[in-house]
Design a protein that fits this description.
- The protein is an alpha/beta fold.
- The protein has a single domain (10-109, 118-220), classed as Rossmann fold, CATH 3.40.50.
- It is built from five helices and 14 strands.
- The protein has helices at 35-46, 74-85, 127-134, 150-160, 202-220, and strands spanning 10-15, 20-21, 27-28, 50-55, 66-70, 90-93, 100-102, 121-123, 139-146, 165-170, 182-183, 185-189, 194-196, 200-201.
- The strands form four sheets. The chain has an eight-stranded mixed β-sheet with strand order 5-4-1-6-9-10-12-13, with helices on both faces. Strands 2-3 form a two-stranded antiparallel sheet. It has a two-stranded antiparallel ribbon with strand order 7-8.
- The two termini are 22 Å apart.
- The protein binds ligand PMT.
- Ligand PMT is lined by residues 14, 16, 32-36, 74, 93-97, 99, 124, 126-128, 142-145, 157, 169, 177-179.
- This is Coenzyme A biosynthesis bifunctional protein CoaBC.
- Its cofactor is Mg(2+); FMN.
- Residues 6-215 form the DNA/pantothenate metabolism flavoprotein C-terminal domain.
- Pathway: Cofactor biosynthesis; coenzyme A biosynthesis; CoA from (R)-pantothenate: step 2/5; Cofactor biosynthesis; coenzyme A biosynthesis; CoA from (R)-pantothenate: step 3/5.
- In the C-terminal section; belongs to the PPC synthetase family.
Length: 221
């Protein structure tokens, strides 16, 4: 696994969840720990790639040899990703990006007054969709975390976001998904081919995914 088949390639990886502020104390977040994205970043660096890791809040150290930019919100992740996009060969979006954010961020802590509290949410930019629109030579890989109709939703995202591959994880399965060391994924290719992987460590999933990406790169150059 120690081959240097990504030497000379620049790869952008996003990891962890974004946080969208409600007030100075609270935020809307999700359960992504960053483990999947950091495993990919470490594995890509091990293969000689120049790795740019753009991470939401995570309790993980940057893997050796990886340049890391830490962000909090989807808007910050969008800006950081777009700043690098033109210079990279590969993008893997393992981050769980909040689809919505509070319309207004209260500048003071919201007090416990009424029995109910309504927070209006507005749509965040879809970063990967935007990359799909802009892409030239880049290989674009997305993730899809689903609780039902995994393949239908994942295929929809693959097409809509103009991806080369999507990694579908059914997060209802024990051993798959958020905040654990293993994952169970299906890799769906642009041409419709599907590869089903058994439960593997996130490092092993990362290596297999990078093998597929290296194959695509050798085909396209
Ligand atoms: O971090 P871990 O704890 O290890 O968990 C890993 C994981 C389960 C978070 C990861 O494997 C995973 O599945 N990440 C994607 C989570 C997800 O729900 O994605 P999505 O279906 O909302 O989005 C599909 C794709 O579009 C993703 O590549 C996402 O990064 C991207 N996206 C989504 C919304 C948005 N506004 N902008 C985006 O770029």
């Amino acid at each position: 696994q120690n081959c240097q088949n990504l030497r000379g390639r620049r790869i952008l990886i996003t990891a962890a969840g974004t946080r969208e502020a409600i007030d100075p104390v609270r935020y809307i977040g999700n359960r992504s720990s960053g483990k999947m994205g950091y495993a990919l970043a470490g594995a890509a660096a091990g293969r000689g790639a120049e790795v740019i890791l753009i991470s939401g809040p995570a309790n993980l150290p940057a893997p050796p040899g990886v340049s890391i930019t830490r962000v909090e919100t989807a808007a910050q992740m969008q800006a950081a990703v777009l700043a690098e996009f033109d210079t990279v060969d590969i993008v893997i979006k393992a981050a769980a990006v909040a689809d919505y954010r509070p319309e207004l961020v209260a500048d003071q802590k919201i007090k416990k007054t009424g029995n109910t509290l309504t927070i209006n949410l507005v749509k965040n930019p879809d970063i990967l969709f935007e990359l799909g629109q802009r892409k030239k030579q880049q290989i674009l890989v997305g993730f899809a975390a689903e609780t039902k109709d995994l393949m239908i939703h994942a295929r929809e995202k693959l097409t809509k976001k103009n991806l080369d591959m999507i990694v579908a994880n059914d997060i209802t399965l024990p051993g798959a998904g958020f905040n654990i060391d293993t994952n169970i994924v299906k890799i769906i290719h642009k041409d419709g081919a599907v590869e089903e992987l058994p439960q593997l460590s996130k490092q092993q999933v990362a290596e297999i995914l990078l093998d597929k990406i290296s194959t695509l790169l050798t085909k396209s150059t």
